[in-house]
Amino acid sequence: MNQHPEPQAAAEFPEPLPVFHEELEAQLSAMSYAGNGLAPAIVQDHETRDVLMLAWMNEAALRKTIETGHTWFWSRSRGEYWRKGDTSGDRQIVREIRYDCDCDCILVIVDQQGRGACHTGEWSCFFRTFKPVDVGITDHHGGARGATDHPPSATGAELA
Q1: I want to staple 93 with a disulfide (CB 3.0 to 4.6 A). Which of 25, 29, 111, 144 is the partner?
Q2: Whole-model pTM?
Q3: How high is the mean pLDDT of the chain?
Q4: How far is residue 51 from each of residues 7, 81, 139, 154, measured CA to CA in Å?
Q5: pLDDT in tens, 74-109
Q6: Which of these, 4, 56, 12, 58, lies nearest to 32 by C-alpha position?
Q7: What's the first-to-final CA gap in the chain, in angstroms?
């Protein structure tokens, strides 16, 4: 059950949004947003390659992020735009923005300033780890794993 209200797909940004050069406008037009007008935006640290957070962007938040060089998102719970760091001081300076092959997911590579990205004070929102018990868990190839085996993982360098 989703506890977040659905945002308005065309929620107006409180100030005029920029119009970019033709090539960038074509790229922005290619983006696909879910029925609620949002696309997931993964934020990754430029230096460490750590995945810092996942938030939601609509076209206006993406445009504002491109224009200002700071990350802007749509808050599903508050139903408003927010710029990372306005409350905490933990700002994100945009280094690069990528989008996936389906044009429906955004990757924002940033220089993270301050304590980190998570509202809990952690560097990354992904600080929790599932700890499976040894009851016949299989790895992604279908083979059994022992209690001391660890699943294959990619390092930040491999993800870059």
Answers
A1: 111
A2: 0.74
A3: 83
A4: 25, 22, 23, 12
A5: 999 999 999 999 999 999 999 999 999 999 999 999
A6: 58
A7: 34
User: Cα separation of 97 and 69, whole Å?
Assistant: 10
**Pairing mode, if any, of strands 106-112 and 80-83?**
unpaired
Cβ–Cβ < 8 Å for 127, 119: no
Confidence of residue 143 (pLDDT cuts 50, 70, 90): low
Residue pair 97/113 in contact (Cβ under 8 Å)? The answer is: no
Map out the domains of the chain with their CATH numbers.
Answer: 22-115 (3.10.20.810)
Strands (DSSP E) found in the chain: 39-45, 51-57, 72-75, 80-83, 92-99, 106-112
**pLDDT tier, 18 (very low <50, low <70, confident <90, very high otherwise):** confident
